[in-house]
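Minutes, project huddle
Topic: does the predicted pose make sense with arginine bound?
PN asked that the exact inputs be recorded in the minutes so nobody has to dig through chat later. Recorded below.
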Amino acid sequence: MKKPWAGRFKEKTAGSVEAFTESISFDWRLWPYDIQGSIAHARMLARQGIISGDDADKIITGLQEIASEIEAGKFRFRQDLEDIHMNIEAALIKKIGPSGGKLHTARSRNDQVALDLRLYLRAEVEGFIKTIKKLQRVFLRLAQRHADTIMPGYTHLQRAQPVTLGHHLLAYVEMFQRDRERLQDALKRINTLPLGACALAGTTLPVDRAYVARLLRFKRIADNSMDAVSDRDFALEFLSIGSILMLHLSRMAEELVLWSTEEFSFIELPDAFTTGSSIMPQKKNPDVAELIRGKTGRVYGALLGLLTTMKALPLAYNRDMQEDKLPVFDTVDTLNRVLTILTEMLPKVKFNKKRMQETAAGGYSLATDLAEYLVEKGLPFRDAHEVTGRIVRHAIERDSELHELTLDEFKGFSPLIGADIFKLLTIEKAVKRRKSRGGTSPDEVRRQIDRLRKSL
Ligand code: ARG
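Predicted holo structure (tokens), as shared on screen:
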């Protein structure tokens, strides 16, 4: 097929070059946005008297027909027409004749591709904000159910202090809250109109960019035409937010893997969401969680890839930038799949309360409670820490837990310790008393749940 730029060229484009430079094999999925953008552009051209109302009508009807054809799978995307923009424009000209050739007035593929990607990302990001909310609700329901379930809290993966499972789960809700906020904030910049920048310098024709922005619901208009066609910050922001989101999900996934081991036995993953081994009959593997963890790598790869592509590109548009789409599409698909499967699996995970509770009690996890008891009795915290440390060492040597020591043994370390200490040395008391704002007590956890519910 004849290229729109054929006038300048004596030779035909080499087939190998067409195959090398094409983007239609992946940017075809921008078609709804390309058509939406073109319809708005045509309306503006007519309103400004740059093309006739009659031409605009033909263009719009033609584009709508093309949309239906693509939707019905009846449209043939051609590699020799390079990308989605030229495929649609060529089909339009074929369909409606010379009026179709007027659509590309006061427009370049450079502002068109930026427009399409922004419209696409805007829709996807709005979708992600909703899917993350859904996942948060799943976590909140679990947290509500387990507001009193006691488990060991870890630092350095060593038992540290007892916490409630609800509290642990809410930590993830907070992470997702920030992810949502970041997406919301990125939307401001995604939601900026590049169209009207043309190739790079603006146009001599009397366009009305504000009108196009209104038609396409853009809150801002890119104010510098060179920046408008060169800017891919919005895609990089999306990829970095996606990377942080995947980081959060990979931490969750890692805990699911760990907790489902025989050694931890904190949870049982649903059969339908695990896989077996081809050789070891007893195995039940946490593949979903592992793949969530694993897919984090490819999302980071997408971010690093696009950062590297954009690095040191001279202004304005360069063909390098065509490489922006694959990492963005792949990240959108990965995030969608990961969020969906996790939202499906999580409510079916069985928590082994008894096992969690038993594990929380061991390992001198109440030592901090003893130290804080001494603080309340007037000892400076550093001294209380020292005394408690000695008591723990003594208990380890005697092979007993703190609550198994006698009052006399306690008093041998500090006369401040009274019989009331025994009431405090239970994990139930330990979590209940951690009522400070953001703490692990069931009451505080319920307060956190209420607050998060409201923000959803
Ligand atoms: N397919 C191109 C891309 O994805 C569209 C813009 C091409 N512009 C150009 N002057 N070659 O970036």
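Observations noted during the meeting:
- The pocket of arginine is lined by residues 23, 27, 83, 109-110, 113, 317, 319, 321-322 (CB under 6 Å).
- The chain has a mean pLDDT of 96.
No decisions taken; revisit at the next huddle.
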